[in-house]
Design goal:
The structure is a single chain. Strand 10, helix 13 and strand 11 form a beta-alpha-beta unit. By secondary structure, the protein is of the alpha/beta class. It is built from 30 helices and 17 strands. The chain has 4 domains: 5-263, Alpha-Beta Complex (2-enoyl-CoA Hydratase, Chain A, domain 1), CATH 3.90.226; 298-475, NAD(P)-binding Rossmann-like Domain (Rossmann fold), CATH 3.40.50; 477-499 and 601-626 and 630-698, N-(1-d-carboxylethyl)-l-norvaline Dehydrogenase, domain 2 (Orthogonal Bundle), CATH 1.10.1040; 518-595, Orthogonal Bundle (N-(1-d-carboxylethyl)-l-norvaline Dehydrogenase, domain 2). The protein has an 8-stranded mixed beta sheet with strand order 12-11-10-13-14-15-16-17, sandwiched between helices. The chain has a 6-stranded mixed beta sheet with strand order 1-2-3-4-6-9, sandwiched between helices. It is globular and about 90 Å long. The protein binds nicotinamide-adenine-dinucleotide (NAD).
Length: 698
């Protein structure tokens, strides 16, 4: 086995290289190896300085999350502080990522050089903890408490050029010769004394002494975003300690806060999600080594809401994409909207204006199937109508090159029915993006009965390239995500029919952690779209049709949502705040009367449990049918597709950890007795309860 850490002399410079693939995490053995190498360099009179770097594709990308919270060795506890105090300079040579414990290590080096593509950051908050290796004490000394707080509380990755501007990195070196450049840099500074030690710096801390209100201002700023969470606030507390305490005491304070967080519920949930998101892309019978095509070009059919967004996903990562429409006018309109979306992003500062033309240049308009035939994948995103989609798949089957993947973005329709009209069902699958496609992280990959393993592997690889959280599931009405979401939607209307009001339901869900309440989301999407779908379904499929008399009454009263200034809520000109509206309450009460329902007061807990448990039950049925592979896939999808609060671990994790399966079972049985219908408990839930198991065991 290769050594975890190697040490080699380049003239008078000792080069220490971490070799712990894939990302050189600080697993047990790594700190010890670095420390031993440092001692070699220190005791060798011929060595004037040292370089600390990572082998393979990265510097140290962070702590080893598997070992988080375990007792560290005495060396692991002290090596960084000792390195900072050493009498020979150490230069961190950074490529790939220096995140968390990786950046904390680099901050204890005396200098830092990085290649332009490198990224640095302290993302611990994203798994519910804080940087516990001195990061909250040293970063403020280097960049000032305000910037440090922004970086630590957001956990964002900072590109090397920005890190240089902030003073985190001393020099940007050529991409292709990191070690050579770092050795040259080390030679250049080897005689400088006293050594620059981040822990000794204090000038930047003065900023906070002049503005002591900055910490409370930050607490106020994150109030909405970080509600119900602890870690972001502890990050602020720790940075505040960097200003008020000397280094050693500050480090001890950081450690105490870290220890408190690492035992908390928040980090348990967030670490679980970290793994759930990785697992969701794995399919039990599709082995890792399955051949996956490299997608070099793509086509999208339909330039509507979804088609335009999907085209942006490709252009954003540099993959050329052709967009096909029925006629030139619709096509031009669709692409103009894409351009407008990019312009809005540039205006908001989330994109470089120079990139607009670069990305638009990757999007080519097309009006005939011949023009798209040579692309590696085509994604159909036309109206949600099976006959229309089948016609398109017939045309694609004729036009597309032999090995192309044929995908549909349908939200609910049968993938097998589309595959069946082609001569290559093994190359057909669903790639279900969420709206807006260029923003939402989830990509649900739907596997048809005949979809080939290579096709699945190709779509998964593409999804990752598009920077999506990928979840794979089988083919059923609504697939995994939307099918589990439907009972939630049915219950939210049932609650208002029985006695609740939109403002109560929305407040409960907002307080739970959703970015918006479900009724406000409905107003944002527009109530007329689902109204039209209901009108159609009532005619086409009356047996399975579920009426929604309240939403119908609102639409018929001209309340279409935000776009008409009123929906479930009232909106003021230029203000997106949803205001409760007595007129809505009247309409709701009158519908309840017509339905013969005697309205009652409904408690907040019942609101929450009815919405979520109806979906938990449906998810259990999907797991039972084998359409979903694991319970945690549901969680990854609800977090990334529907805004379920990440720090609650996802729908199924929440059920496991707040109620537990036996209580879920009892409640479902009680409500099935009362309401019937979709409350019929999944057999899986009874089985799990009887076996003393949790959803996470599935
Ligand atoms: N809107 C959403 O929130 C959402 C989310 C996920 C999935 N979807 C699914 O994505 C698909 C598209 O939805 P949308 O909201 O973008 O619809 P949309 O109405 O905004 O766009 C559909 C586009 O397809 C075009 N089109 C129709 N027939 C065509 C044909 N024969 N050839 C070429 N173009 C044709 C239309 O001109 C229109 O521009 C649907 O299957 C829908 O269920 C929608």
């Amino acid at each position: 086995m290769p050594e975890l850490v190697s040490y080699k002399k380049h003239g008078a410079i000792g080069v220490i290289t971490v070799n712990n693939p894939p990302v050189n995490a600080l697993s047990p053995g790594v700190p010890e190896g670095i420390y031993e190498s440092l001692l070699k360099g220190l005791s060798d009179p011929a060595v004037k300085a040292m370089v600390l770097t990572g082998g393979g594709r990265s510097f140290i990308a962070g702590a080893d999350i598997k070992h988080l919270g375990q007792q560290k060795s005495p060396v692991a506890m002290k090596w960084r502080d000792e390195m900072e105090r050493m009498e020979k300079p150490v230069v961190a040579a950074i490529h790939g990522f220096a995140l968390g414990g990786g950046l904390e290590s680099a901050l204890c080096c005396h200098y830092r050089v990085a290649v332009p593509s490198a990224k640095v950051g302290l993302p611990e908050v994203l798994i519910g903890i804080l940087p516990g290796g001195g990061g909250t004490q040293r970063l403020p000394r280097l960049v000032g408490p305000k910037t440090a707080m922004e970086l630590i509380v957001s956990g964002r990755h900072v590109p090397a050029p920005e890190a240089k501007a902030l003073g985190i990195v001393d020099e940007i070196v050529p991409e292709n010769d990191l070690v050579g450049a770092a050795v040259a840099f080390a030679e250049k500074i080897s005689g400088v004394r006293p050594l620059p030690r981040v822990g000794d710096k204090s000038d930047k801390l003065a900023e906070a002494k002049a503005d002591p209100g900055m910490f409370d201002a930050m607490r106020k700023k994150i109030e909405r975003r970080a509600r119900n969470q602890v870690a972001p606030y502890r990050c602020i507390d720790a940075v505040e300690a960097a200003v008020s305490l000397p280094l050693e005491k500050g480090l001890a304070h950081e450690r105490a806060l870290f220890d408190e967080l690492r035992q908390g519920e928040e980090t348990g949930a967030l670490k679980y999600v970290f793994y759930a998101e990785r697992e969701a892309a794995k399919v039990p019978d599709v082995p890792r080594e399955t051949k996956a095509q490299d997608i070099r070009s793509a086509a999208v059919i339909g330039a509507g809401t979804m088609g335009g967004g999907i085209a942006m996903c490709f252009a954003n990562v540099g993959i050329p994409v052709k967009v096909l429409e029925r006629d030139k006018e619709t096509l031009d309109k669709g692409l103009a909207k894409v351009k407008r979306n990019y312009e809005i992003s540039a205006k908001r500062g989330s994109m470089d204006p120079a990139d607009i033309s670069k990305r638009m240049a990757l999007i080519t308009p097309a009006l005939s199937y011949e023009e798209v035939g040579d692309t590696d994948i085509v994604i159909e995103a036309v109206f949600e109508n099976l006959d229309v989609k089948k016609e398109i798949f017939k045309k694609l089957d004729k036009a597309m090159k032999a090995d192309a993947v044929l995908a549909s973005n349908t939200s609910t329709l049968d993938i097998d029915a589309m595959a069946a009209v082609t001569s290559r069902p093994a190359q057909v699958l669903g790639t279900h993006f969420f709206s807006p496609a260029n923003v939402m992280k989830l990509l649900e990959i739907v596997r048809g009965e005949k979809t080939g393993k290579e096709t699945i592997a190709t779509a998964v690889k593409l999804g990752k390239r598009l920077e999506k959280v990928v979840g794979v599931c089988g083919n059923c009405d609504g697939f995994l995500a939307n099918r589990t979401r439907i009972p939630f939607k049915i219950e939210m209307m049932a609650l208002v029919e029985e006695g609740s009001l939109p403002e109560q339901v929305d407040k409960v869900m907002y307080d739970f952690g959703y970015p918006m309440g479900p009724f406000a989301v409905g107003d944002l999407a527009g109530l007329d779209i689902s109204y039209a779908t209901r009108q159609r379904r009532a005619k086409e499929d009356p047996a399975n049709f579920r009426a929604d008399p309240i939403s119908d009454a609102l639409v018929e009263a001209g309340r279409l949502g935000q776009k008409s200034g009123a929906g479930y809520f009232l909106y003021k000109e230029g203000d997106r705040t949803p205001y409760p509206d007595p007129e809505v309450a009247e309409i709701i009460q009158s519908v309840s009367r017509q339905m013969g329902v005697k309205r009652r007061a409904i408690g907040d807990e019942e609101v929450l449990h009815r919405l979520l448990l109806s979906s938990v039950n449906e998810a259990a049925k999907i797991l039972e049918e084998g359409i979903a592979y694991r319970s945690s896939d549901v969680d990854a999808m609800w977090i990334n597709g529907f805004g379920f609060p990440r720090y609650r671990g996802g729908l199924m994790y929440w059920a496991d950890h707040t109620l537990g399966v036996p209580k879920v079972r009892d409640t479902l049985h009680e409500w099935y007795g009362k309401y019937g219908g979709h409350w019929k408990p999944a057999k899986l839930i009874d089985d799990l309860a009887n076996a003393g198991k949790a959803f996470s065991d599935v």
